[in-house]
Specification:
This protein is α+β, with helices and mostly antiparallel strands and about 500 residues long. About 35% of the residues lie in helices and about 20% in strands.
């Protein structure tokens, strides 16, 4: 009888489910719902909420489809893993029912609460214990609820992250992880326990947090009610959960200090593993407990760039010849030399950037010569500018003591561009490995580690397909670095 691992990826756009064949390590089936983007409620500017029950309904639909497609039964599923959108807030009552819609990661209403806490508690206290400013994370979102919805706050039995909520619906039990609490600014790295000083500052009762369980462990099991509702087997272990960025790193087999996971979709993320408890004094990057943080220090340092794929898409709509594809754009750019013959594009046109200490520098184009520069120069300079923003963040990571030698990425979005990935490899000096995976498949393999089916991550990801390797172009590295330094000089004029 075939055996499978089941992974869920609970995003803000959809919920994806995947079955991974235990014997081959390959994905047997995947599905996601809704097939059009899930709605986000924005009652006021800057707000973003979703119904936790909607996530559950999407999960049921995606699970039903993959079970039907493969003919798998609940008896064949060995364990369940969960990846989820980070930093959200779910509040439930004593009957484990949501008291309000979830305040999700992109909701900005809590910014003043985090800033006030950072200023009143002091940067040294916050950064040395939380490794970040309280910012706009889960703890600050709860502070907003406490002040603005006091009657609802009094009814809260437990708060949870989105992945904790899904695990609770599967099992009937409330629990969370140190990695999860760290992403909500609720984990104290000095004390190695929930951040009581921040809880006290905001006036939260200490029992509002769920019990803490290890990231890789049998955290709970599928309840009889959930088994009947979903067609699963009662007692199936739920043995892994992590936020989407730590889970993306896991999916790309990034576990050790110096390894980097990168994505470049609408926005871009660089997520590196650090082996010591350190932080950026200017809080330009976020630092969380990585999935394997425990006896050995393993921290995930996260850089987010808002305007990556969105800039490339803007160039396609507004600069590229009418009707051109991204592949055709890349072909046109290939005729332009490294450094775009002096054109630099600053890519920060999608809002304030944490890496720039939340300054609004916008997007801009520098160095245009009307006599020689073309659309292709602008398009290449845009891709180079995105890469250079990544490299600017990598400099911060290196200043924290990270040795960066390998970047792991999926062959998708901006990483489909030869120019983008060669520029990143050559400017950063790191080798890029392009791999075939996704978040729900990674969550399934994490579940295999958590239930003991795999002895370690090397065994879990032995079947991970390497699609390409991009080495730094050493012969032309000076040209890449010259272009980067020119870009950085232009960018710093705006800071």
């Amino acid at each position: 009888m075939k055996q499978f691992l089941l992974g869920f990826d609970v995003g803000s756009s959809s919920v994806k489910a995947s079955l991974v064949d235990v014997e081959s390590g390959q994905c047997a089936a995947s599905a996601f719902f809704p097939e059009s983007e899930a709605p986000i409620k924005a009652v006021k500017a800057g707000w973003a909420e979703q119904s936790p029950n909607d996530w559950w309904q999407y999960l049921k639909l995606s699970l039903r489809k993959i079970m039907s497609e493969t003919g798998a039964t609940g008896d064949q599923i060995c364990a369940i893993g969960i990846s989820y959108q980070m930093h959200g807030l779910v509040c439930v009552d004593r009957n484990l029912q949501p008291l309000r819609d979830a305040i999700i990661w992109c909701d900005s209403r809590a910014v003043p609460y985090g800033e006030r806490a950072f200023n009143e508690l002091g940067s040294e206290q916050c950064l040395s214990h939380l490794l970040n400013s309280p910012g706009n994370f889960t703890a600050s979102k709860l502070a907003w609820v406490k002040e603005n919805e006091p009657e609802l706050f009094e009814q809260i039995y437990r708060i949870m992250l989105p992945g904790d909520y899904i695990a609770m619906r599967l099992s009937g039990e409330c629990n969370t992880t140190a990695s999860g609490l760290s992403e909500g600014m609720l984990w104290d790295f000095k004390e190695n326990r929930p951040a009581q000083f921040l809880m006290d500052y905001f006036g939260f009762p200490s029992d509002i947090l769920p019990n803490v369980v290890p990231t890789f462990s049998i955290q709970s099991t599928v309840s009889r009610a959930a088994a009947e509702e979903l067609g699963l087997k009662e007692g199936t272990p739920i043995s892994y959960r992590a936020g989407d960025q730590p889970n993306n790193a896991l999916s790309l087999n990034v576990f050790n200090p110096g390894e980097i996971a990168a994505t470049a979709g609408t926005s871009g993320v660089v997520y590196g593993v650090l082996g010591d408890v350190r932080y950026d004094p200017q809080s330009r990057v976020n630092t969380f407990a990585h999935v394997n943080h425990g006896d050995e220090t393993r921290l995930g340092v996260l850089l987010c760039i808002n305007g990556t794929g969105i800039l490339n898409a803007w160039m396609r709509r507004n600069v590229a010849p009418e009707g051109i594809s991204y592949a055709d754009m890349n072909d046109l750019m290939a005729n332009v030399p490294i450094g775009s013959e002096g054109v630099s594009v600053i890519p920060f046109g999608n809002g304030a950037e944490r890496v720039l200490e939340n300054r609004e520098v916008g997007a801009s184009i520098h160095g245009i010569n009307f006599n020689k520069h073309t659309k292709a120069h602008l398009m290449r300079a845009a891709q180079e500018g995105i890469v250079f923003s990544f490299c600017y963040g990598l400099e911060i990571m290196r200043s924290m003591g990270m040795q960066i030698e390998n970047i792991h990425a999926g062959r998708a979005n901006m990483f489909l561009s030869d120019i983008f990935r060669q520029t990143l490899a050559s400017t950063s000096g790191a080798t890029i490995q392009l791999l075939e995976t996704d978040g729900s498949v990674g969550a399934a393999k994490g579940a295999g580690m958590g239930c003991g089916l795999y002895k370690d991550h090397d065994e879990a990801f032995a079947s991970l397909k390497r699609l390409a390797v991009v080495e730094p172009d050493l012969a032309n590295r000076n040209a890449y670095l010259e272009a980067y330094n020119r870009w950085k000089a232009e960018m710093q004029k705006d800071l």
